[in-house]
Amino acid sequence: MAIFKTFIYALMFVVCIGICYLIVFITNKLPGQHGVIHVNRSSGNGTIYRLLDGIPHVHADSLEMGSYSLGFAMASDRIFHMDKLRRIAQGRLSEIFGDKTIEIDKALRNFGLRTLSQFTYQNFDQKTKDIFTNFTSGVNDYLEYFSVGIEYWLIGTEFEEWTPEDSVSIYLFMTLAMTEGTKIETIREHLFDKLRDTDLVDQILPVNQIHELNISQPIVTDQELKDLGLFKEYVPPMKTDSSERKPYTFIENNHSEELKFLEDISKYFSSSDGASNCWAISSDYTKSGKPILSSDPHLDTSMPSLLYLAELNIKDEFLIGSMMPGLPFFISGRNNHVAFGPTALMADISDLFEEKIEGDKYLFKDEWKKLDIHEEIINVKNSDPVKILIRVSHHGPILDHVGSMFTKVMKQNPPLLAKVPLAFSWVPYHTSESLLNKMPHMLKVKTVQELMTMIRGVKDVSYGVCMADDQNNIGWMALTGYPIRGDESIAESRIKEGWSGKHEWTSFVPEDKLPYLLNPKKGFVFSSNGRVSSKNTEFGVGASQSSNARAFRINHLISELIKKQKVDANDMRKIMGDVYDVYASLKTPLLLKIIEKDNLLDRYITNQKVRKQVTSWIDDLKKWNYTFDKELKQPTIFSLWEFYIVDHLFKAQIQDDYLRRLPSRYFGYDDFLIKLYEKLDRDPSYFSEYCQADTKLPNACGKMIAEGFQFVYNYLVPEGTTLKDEDVLYKKWHTIDYEYQPFSSTFLRMIFDKQDSSSGSKHTVCA
């Protein structure tokens, strides 16, 4: 035994020495994370200053040399992160990770971002190309002098030289990741497949404003549309009768119920799938007498971050803010005169078209057209290459390979997997007007008006941009290309017939018809992934968007604050940290009224111990201030309770758990729940056929709501355990995981992976 212990201690000592040696070896090959680095080329000189926070402050005598220095600095911090992002975008992960990522590569190859990045780059102005080529040289020259880092040693691979197209492909991937239109369309098609009722689907996900919303806070109000001369009474397209609708057949799930349940309940506790807020307040309401801009991108958590902080100084001009790793492009920040911050606009910039295909041809307007078919070769580490065929119609690529990624890799089966050929039409496939082409001018704009003029016409993103300048201007504008559909079906949100020609994109909404704000009378602008405007514009640009609680709350907080006092940066931080849930404030009282009206707890929770605990929780909910504070227990109780309700609604009609729960992740679904609770308060028999799979009771929804508390108890108090106060606190359940690949796949995850708890929900300003 003593010999064995000695062996273990010796082994541990050797391992520790080895790790220490490795760290020293790697560190000696890396540049310092504070201090000064001088970079000199024939085109000029650059200096990278780093303070203790490690953020690079680049000073250069030309924009080209500044771009080179930024590339050098970014590579020193993020080279593996950049490499991983470009490989994701281009479908090339398997070259370094082997066959475990083949399905992801197939899916991304299907979207064709590598080819699109080459087309986009070739259409840049020469000045923009110069920025990208110099940034690329900085990245590659860094590797001439320093080590690539421990990640490459761990996975046994080498860095491949960077190209300008690599940067563009990351930009396009980020845009694709924020494209929401087709997700909503496929979920709605799935709901119709199961429910066969278009009106009910419109209630569940009210993206087309046929049903008015309880919480509706557009960025640009109807009065502001009138002031801009953009107001036009909206006339919705004719609705398709349910009997005329063709339902789509979807591939069924085959993964375990336990796995699906665990995945989904963690997602219900997660803040969001990514969200963003920005606002700017007029100088009339600030203590400094200058406008204040606040921008919070709310991107998914990761290590390292999806954003990169830096400063660029070219003589007397500067840009400081956040960049995308791998790009010489500032997403948000400020220059000498103007500050700017974007949010994801959630504009409807994509469509799915069902194609009729025979062999290598597809039908369009009674004519069989040739599909563009080409082969993609995916190189796989330690294995043979994989070949796939990509088919493309004039609408876009046929999504032949996207489904397998979800079923085999993500263990999910979203409604995208309809058993028909679906072509993906996306604005960046149809335009060369890129936001990246505006990069050379970002240093020089001096006013909000100049910035608006400069970026107007950009179509390959979907952003709502808040702006402020030192001349006391504030503004907001929609930065996207809104397609005009031939049948004006912008509000229909469904898969479209590709062969008829009725739904073709004819052009884009003209820039002068897009809503914007410049120094509005109310004294502020805001944006938070919600509705641009009401449906009352010439092309109904706001008709396909849902509002959200964050927009309502931000508008309310700023409106009330500037009535009382002049504001400063500390007030902005308080708004950014706000965790009041507007939807919870509406839903909780309604649910409690339903529970108490017919003594539902006594009828459906028979165990006295459970009923006593549930009664205590109900008392807690009555005292709740509707904040999702991590030190409170009410957010946990409410979230679990509503998860059970969401999980059991439509259970008889939709057996697939994942697909049944999926709509709850979108803002419109909460409005549906509020309307449902309101109607149940008036009529307990309402909606009974959709509330329980195993009963025909006239108050089936009330029974479901009451039994939700039994679920809360069972979840928080597993059999054989005793409930402790800390078990109910929100911070135990609302956790944030920070994984760092490739360490997360090794024993080193104990060192590199982190977890933290936080306040907020998907409906709060601080999400």
Percent helix range: 25-40%
DSSP strand tally: 25
Strands across the major sheet, in which order? 1-2-3-6-7-8-9-17-18-22
Mean pLDDT: 86
Q: Roughly what fraction of the amino acids lie in strands?
A: 15-25%
Gyration radius (Cα, Å) is 27 Å
Please outline the major beta sheet.
10 strands, mixed
Low-confidence stretches: 24-30, 250-264, 409-416
Write structural notes for this entry.
With 767 residues, the protein is of the alpha+beta class. The protein is globular and about 85 Å long. The chain starts with a helix and ends in a 10-residue tail after the last strand.
Secondary structure elements and pairings:
Elements lengths: L1 H27 L6 E7 L2 E7 L5 E5 L2 H28 L3 H4 L4 H10 L1 H10 L3 H20 L4 H6 L8 H14 L3 H15 L2 H7 L17 H7 L28 H13 L7 E5 L10 E5 L11 E7 L2 E7 L6 E5 L3 E7 L5 E5 L2 E2 L2 E4 L2 E4 L1 E7 L7 E7 L9 H8 L12 E5 L21 H8 L6 E8 L4 E7 L2 E3 L10 E2 L7 E4 L7 E3 L5 E4 L21 H16 L4 H8 L5 H16 L2 H5 L3 H15 L11 H15 L8 H5 L5 H16 L17 H17 L8 H4 L1 H4 L1 E4 L10 H4 L1 E4 L10
Parallel strand pairs: 3-6, 10-20
Antiparallel strand pairs: 1-2, 2-3, 4-5, 4-23, 6-7, 7-8, 8-9, 9-17, 10-16, 11-12, 12-13, 14-15, 17-18, 18-22, 19-21, 24-25
Helix pairs in contact: 2-4, 2-6, 2-8, 4-13, 5-8, 9-10, 17-22, 20-23
